[in-house]
Amino acid sequence: MSSLKDGVYILSIDAKDIYLSNSYKKDYVGYNPRNNVGLMNTDKFLNKLDYSLDLIKLIEIYKSVYRNNRFTFEENNKSFSQRVINVTFKYSVKEYNRYFGNVWVKLGFDYNDIKDKMVDHVYMINGKVIAIDTNEGVECPISKESLGNCFYYDKTTHRYSVYEYKIKTIRTTRELRKDLYHKGFYCDGIKFIRFKRSSGAARVGKCLFIDEKLYSKIHKWELCKLKINEGDELDLAAFEAYISLTSSSIIDTLYIDPKSILVVNDYESTFKEDALVTRIVDGELHTNDEIVELSNSIWDGQSLMDISLFGDYQDKGMLLLRNQFFKSCCFNCNIQKWFKDNGIERLEQLNGQTIADDISQIKLITTPSSIKYLKFGELEQWLTSITPIFGVVKYEKKTHYLDGNLVRCHYQLINSLQMTKKEVKKLIEPSFNYLEMIKNDPVVLRHYIKYTGNTDMELSDPLTYKSDITYKLLGLNDKFTQTKMYDLFKKDIITSYKKNLREGHLFLNGNYSTICGNPIEMLYQAIGKFDGTSQIGIGKVHTTRFKYNKTILGSRSPHICQCNIWLPLNSSNEMIDKYMNGTTEIIYINSIGESVLDRLSGADFDSDSLMITDNSVLIKAARKNINNFKVSINKVEAKKIKRFYTAEQKADLDIKTSNNQIGVIINLSQELNSKVWDKLNNGAKLEDIQEIYKDVCQLNVMSNIEIDSAKKEFDVVMNQEIENIRNKYRTKDKDGKTIKPYFFGIIAKEKGYFNDDKFNYKKMDTSMDYLEELIDSKRFSRKTPKEFIKFYELLNTENYDNNKVNRQQAQRIMSEIKKFEGKMKYLFSTTLFDPSCQMIYYQNQRNALMEYIGRLNINDSTIIYLLKSLDNSENQKYYQTIFKAFFGYPNERFYELIKSSNEKMLELAQSEDGILEIFGYKYSKIYKN
Asked: Are 356 and 284 in contact (CB under 8 A)?
């Protein structure tokens, strides 16, 4: 039985398929999600409705509407629901539309109705092609005239083929969106209408649709007593973003009485800065030197929450909470102690608004910046209307590397620093040394996969499962390291590790810390004693992760340019230690009178995290230019567009939002950064690169515009702005190839879009190119080839009885494994799935296979027979799939047949007198159970 916290899988359908299925039949059935025998085809449930406040409420509403508990159905220990559908808008509707990758069917016809009528791979009516299969050989091709303009017969392959560009478009994706938003659609006989989209989904064009019968009640709940009717004028972009806050994925819920809340005014710190300012001038972006007045909202998106409200999370420094029109990062604080120490005994002594009856009730201090409701309604109405159940989105966590001591940086940071090749070598050397230890010492590898978790490594999901399995087997039998399976796994780990190095993900001493802004000042604001003075101090931070009176380096994503680097001084702070309950993953910063929020690329305090490190190489490089590159300031105002609450306006807004260019902007900025360093490292002066740097700063602002595009509208033609900068700096070699930095080619190879016919990936004098050169030239130690032991040599075979082997059962299992392999080969070779759906499909199919094997009643002799088959030559190509299928299911049947080593297994443990040193941390090898 699956838990609601695991989320609910929902259908993911493209608008094209919805339109087609709702067009050729007018029977109010619409899209058919069922298989040939009428059962729900869960292979089509390729999206997930995460555990959220919305999901909790939807289940409650469904029960009241339908008078049953069948909002979800179970299959393979997963929950599915057909009451919410994720709709994508990737494909337009054509005169002929593709089915199953190779069959083209004329608009208005259902392939299922005509597939049995096809003769020699074509079906015609009155001399017109209705359906044609372009994947199979043809015996008697029809005439050229009958094929029309869109199809032709290829004599070399003996197949029909298609001129896709000649097929007429009937409905564009834009028109499809407008159609579905306005009319809705039918699926399995249920009428669906537009529900909502999250900011992230909006950027890629996705939108959720909901069973029409459930919509009115969920919409009434999410409005929280706001009166917004069809056709009303409002800030639609903001409204759409904020009603989706309750759909955010949560890990838990907390009860918070609205009477616990005190709302104090936000505070704007204003000051002047000599900066590079980007504004809109005559409809275009322009960046210029300017002494500009800045205004920092010093508690933007931040709350303080008394430790007594943290419940099971009292050891955490922050909880990111969601509720109706509420989004705030709530930092662990001793609020009641603060009141007591400052003689605050009555509500009248507070400086804010509350509906509390007594001072003892006040447990959460927040500001209007966290309450999005105030853009549309009054505070008292929100306080008296919200549900007292708040969703816990996340809390701060240690990194996954070396017991939480290491963090991975990224290529944007490295490429925004001016380092010599010698400095880059010093930076990467500890990562090389760590890889050598992982490669040559199974004890280090086991420790690595235990703490890595693969979350930040951009590894595929299959490697996560292999890590879990390998970790267990390494703890059972020391001879496992002599098997081919271990060798294959180790190669996967090394390949993945090197790939991460290539992309600039070097290990550094440090972590990702959630930033909390001026918390003591916020406490003073609550009692009316804040006078605008910084208690932390300009240029300082407070974190227990590093020693005090030590400079650290901070970098936030997106990290676009040289000015995004921050070098604050870590300092002690008695007040913060007394009233804030922080952890090593919380960093307290000051934004009064300093441009830190702009330096950190538009940071605020709604759980933004900062990569912090004390790495001496990076800090030395940062100091070299910290005063040479002015801070980039965004003065591009959101456009006041008159919008109305209508289906047409929602569609228009989502069409504009879906064309997001954040990745293109970041890549272009790194090209320009490479040009800056290449010029400076080859004799140019700072004034020679200022024009390039201005454009990098403009790209920094453009990245922030794109990030905000789901909740604000800007009068910026982003494609044109990108093209203007790209054309300005595009250079070509003598063969007409566009010159790109060398490391772009390396990353392009890793990601699968390398193109040396179009691009010349040329080595430049820039940090990332130095990094790639060093990796290219690095020669890792190689052990002499060894003979592998057979996997079955690890098995307890004392009770094996060949006569008890159920060979029919074993054959069925192998048949399922081969069937799975065939599906995966197709999955990863087709472009029909987007990457997120592709991975969900993989997970579902893999889990179904493991469920099938795990639930079989297999005797020990049959298990041993199957495990012996791992070493059969005919199973070599299925080796890893077989291995994962047998050991991936969460039971111990297969593990129990592995011999335990005679001795306890060695593990790494941090110790001051350890002889093994990893990134400055000492480790010993000790025996553990």
From this structure: no
Contact yes or no for 409/555 (Cβ under 8 A): yes
Task: Kindly report the backbone phi and psi dihedral angles of residue 101, in degrees, each rounded to the nearest multiple of 5, phi listed first.
Answer: 80, -15
Instruction: Count Cα neighbours of 18 within 13 Å in the Cβ-side half-sphere.
Output: 29
Which residue ranges make up each domain of the chain?
4-91+172-223, 96-167, 252-397+511-633, 791-897
Tell me whether the omega of the peptide bond preceding residue 33 falls within 30 degrees of 0, making it cis: no
Residue with tokens 């406490």: 523
| Residues β-bridged to residue 169 | 94
Does the predicted TM-score (pTM) go above 0.85?
Answer: yes
Residue 460, both tokens = 């595929």
Measured CA to CA, the distance from residue 5 to residue 1 in angstroms comes to 12
Query: Rounded distance, CA 405 to CA 546, Å?
Result: 11
Which DSSP symbol is given to 260? Answer: G
Residue with the two structure tokens 């490697």: 463
- pLDDT band (50, 70, 90) for residue 707: confident
485 vs 664 pLDDT, higher one: 664
Closest Cα partner for 233 from 376, 385, 378? 376
Q: Give the separation between CA 160 and CA 134, rounded to whole angstroms.
A: 5
Please return the burial class of 781, using the count of CB atoms within 10 Å of its CB with bins 0-12, 13-18 and 19+.
exposed
Q: Are 427 and 506 in contact (CB under 8 A)?
A: yes
In this predicted structure, the answer to whether residue 454 has a pLDDT above a threshold of 50 is no
Q: Could you tell me which residues come within 8 angstroms of residue 728 by beta carbon, excluding any fewer than 6 positions away?
A: 695
Reported as a pLDDT band with limits 50, 70 and 90, residue 456 is very low
Tell me the two tokens of residue 281.
């001038």
